[in-house]
Amino acid sequence: MKKIIVTGCNGQLGRAVNEYYKNASDISFVNTDVEELDITSIDAVMKLAREVQPYAIINCAAHTAVDACEKEYDRAFQINAIGPRNLAIAARETGAKLVHISTDYVFDGKGTRPYVETDPTDPQSAYGSTKLAGEEFVKAFADRYFILRTAWLYGDGKNFAKTMLRLSETYDKVRVVNDQVGSPTSTVELTKAINALLFSDNYGIFHATCEGSCAWDEFAREIFRLAGKNTVVEGITTAEYNAPAPRPAYSILENRMLKLTTDFMFADWHDAIAVYLKELCG
Ligand SMILES: NC(=O)c1ccc[n+]([C@@H]2O[C@H](COP(=O)([O-])OP(=O)(O)OC[C@H]3O[C@@H](n4cnc5c(N)ncnc54)[C@H](OP(=O)(O)O)[C@@H]3O)[C@@H](O)[C@H]2O)c1
Question: How confident is residue 99, by pLDDT bands cut at 50, 70 and 90?
């Protein structure tokens, strides 16, 4: 029986990982969220890892509120950088594999072609720089790690698709940013990518996003189309939207390492959101 510690199990990805493996008879999960295991505490992390002696730790915990990270840099650093550092130390100490999730925000967002894993990083936001520090700690302290950089994630939890559907209940028209491009990625697809790596020795950094790309306004239109809503989407610029934290204008990641080292292929974002909305809305 392989024991796997999941952190942040109540988040979008944590739930998807649990759902994916719910019928696996050879895996037992030790599910934790901040009440059971605060990943910012090295003592708590070491204690649990020594008790469980896990095959792997899947880190689904993070401070994902991008705008809040600007105001709460230290808190964001604790969760997004020191947390993964603690898990990396515990993974090394117990011989466990570590799955850690990172983000497109580690790049500057000024690219003109999809970013590959070896491209230089240059985060522009507090969220991005704390997540990059998390990657660096994982690389420094863990022996056997998989870092998956994903983007525009949606699943069982708060996300863009659900926000759009909620707004469509009240408004006939919504204004959505049209000058940021990326790849909407479902937690189901991301979990399949984790599964393609977890039982292998294929360690390192992997870009992990659904295939294809769009701007946020195009994503919103597809959500409304699939959900049978007549809500009109008006495209606006990032400057007009005026969010507190800078967002990358260009967020497209090429899943080069997954393509070159595994048989796994992400679904196209259109197909993944269709599956998601079918389950959500029927
Ligand atoms: N969401 C996206 O669009 C996106 C894009 C790119 C990359 N990612 C990355 O993908 C991963 C999964 O994201 P997600 O959307 O599933 O995140 P999420 O839904 O925000 O879930 C994160 C979970 O971690 C918990 N948590 C916070 N602080 C913790 C701590 N100190 N110890 C233990 N647990 C803690 C949160 O609890 P509370 O809710 O109580 O804080 C929450 O249950 C993260 O690494 C994120 O950075 C996400």
Answer: very high
